[in-house]
């Protein structure tokens, strides 16, 4: 294994390498020609649901980006836990004229990019980021959130019945569910990014499991670091102190048994980012500062964007499987360079001293 990076958590070395063989998982469909975001949700036995944001679909079926159309989101279902041998089937919708359209429908200049989600008690619940066009920056703004409950997740995805839930919106520009959704004992936890402040301060919220699976999200509670307690949103006088700053809109957190800590995986820099981790003994912190653990080889490309680093602990073939997204600031390079705009895989192995 080519070791591209080696860092340490406590008495454990983290060794990483690019996993080029797994990259082929996303390149086999004749119509689906790339996307970013790439959250994953453990589903039925040995199955995974993938959630993608802006997606290229080539309606000719020639796997050609020159003839591709862009839709705002798509999904896939992976059968098998090892990405080098699993089968992956992509899904999107078609409009009344038969043209490719987003799996979760957009509305004019507003659309959905996926946050995370969870399959729990035979229910599939997905958090979505609401996005709109603006005339500055990169031309878009993540400004709110929605939640959809799939009532029949065992059926074919194009036959899913989507139930849009009533949600407790907040006035803080915190996008709930932009990052990991976790079940810990009798609660569902969500990690959330503040989209109104540079540096993306990160917050954690929760719901009782029984309320969550029934589709009742109105009893949301926020962790308040000042009082070390959970407070219902309706009781908040102001936004709580964040868990940490220098977060990202998208990232993952899971409990990693090999280091006996919660592990956060994220990108950090704008543009050609490295990959970083944080650790904590508790979901509510304190969280460590970000530590660089992998430098993507894609950083050598001009105009490259590297972002949306995420862990997928349900996948096999390595102690931990990570992906990150690649893009380009130049549209012509995005179309011509077929090595980018597919999720890239990283193998992680934990080696004790």
Features:
353 residues; mainly beta; six-stranded antiparallel β-sheet; 3 helices; 28 strands
Notes on the structure:
This protein has 353 residues and is mainly β. 4% of the residues lie in helices and 45% in strands. The protein contains 3 helices and 28 strands. Strands 16, 17, 18, 19, 20 and 21 form a 6-stranded antiparallel sheet that branches. Strands 1-2-28-27-26 form a 5-stranded antiparallel sheet. A hairpin with a 6-residue loop joins β13 and β14. The longest helix is centred in the C-terminal third of the chain and has 6 residues. The protein starts with a strand and ends with a strand.
Produce a short descriptive summary.
With 353 residues, the chain is mainly β. Helix content is 4%, strand content 45%.
Task: Describe the protein's topology.
Layout (H helix, E strand, L loop, with lengths): L4 E5 L2 E7 L1 H4 L8 E4 L3 E4 L4 E6 L2 E3 L11 E3 L2 E6 L7 E5 L1 E2 L5 E2 L8 E11 L2 E11 L6 E11 L11 E3 L9 E2 L5 E4 L2 E8 L7 E7 H5 L7 E4 L4 E4 L19 E5 L4 E7 L7 E6 L10 E4 L9 E8 L8 E9 L2 H6 L7 E9 L1
Antiparallel strand pairs: 1-2, 2-28, 3-6, 4-5, 5-8, 6-7, 8-9, 10-11, 12-13, 13-14, 14-15, 16-18, 17-18, 18-19, 19-20, 20-21, 22-23, 23-24, 24-25, 26-27, 27-28
């Amino acid at each position: 294994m080519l070791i591209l990076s080696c860092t340490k958590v406590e008495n454990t070395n983290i060794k990483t390498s690019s996993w080029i063989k797994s990259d082929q998982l996303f390149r086999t469909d004749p119509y689906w020609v790339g996307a970013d975001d790439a959250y994953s949700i453990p589903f039925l036995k040995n199955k995974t649901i993938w959630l993608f944001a802006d997606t290229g679909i080539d309606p000719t079926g020639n796997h050609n980006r020159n003839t591709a159309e862009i839709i705002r989101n798509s999904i896939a279902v992976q059968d098998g836990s090892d990405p080098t041998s699993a089968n992956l089937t992509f899904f999107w919708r078609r409009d009344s004229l038969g043209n490719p359209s987003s799996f979760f429908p957009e509305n004019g200049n507003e659309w959905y990019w996926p946050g995370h989600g969870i399959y729990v008690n035979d229910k599939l619940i997905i958090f979505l980021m609401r996005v709109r066009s603006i005339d500055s920056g990169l031309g878009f703004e993540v400004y709110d959130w929605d939640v959809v409950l799939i009532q029949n997740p065992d059926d074919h995805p194009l036959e899913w019945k989507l139930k849009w839930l009533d949600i407790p919106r907040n006035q803080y520009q915190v996008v709930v569910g932009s990052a990991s959704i976790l079940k810990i004992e009798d609660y569902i936890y969500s990690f959330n990014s503040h989209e109104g402040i540079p540096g993306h301060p990160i917050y954690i919220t929760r719901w009782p499991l029984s309320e969550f699976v029934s589709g009742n999200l109105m009893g949301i509670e926020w962790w308040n670091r000042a009082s070390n307690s959970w407070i219902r949103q309706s009781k908040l006088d102001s936004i709580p102190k964040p868990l940490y700053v220098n977060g990202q809109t998208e990232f993952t957190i899971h409990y990693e048994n090999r280091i006996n800590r919660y592990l956060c995986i994220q990108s950090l820099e704008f543009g050609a980012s490295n990959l970083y981790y944080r650790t904590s003994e508790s979901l509510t912190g304190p969280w460590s500062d970000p530590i660089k653990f992998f430098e993507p080889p894609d950083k050598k490309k001009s105009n490259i964007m590297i972002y949306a680093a995420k862990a997928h602990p349900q996948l096999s073939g390595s102690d931990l499987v990570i992906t990150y997204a690649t893009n380009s600031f130049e549209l012509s390079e995005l179309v011509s360079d077929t090595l980018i705009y597919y999720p890239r895989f990283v193998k992680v192995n934990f080696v004790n001293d």
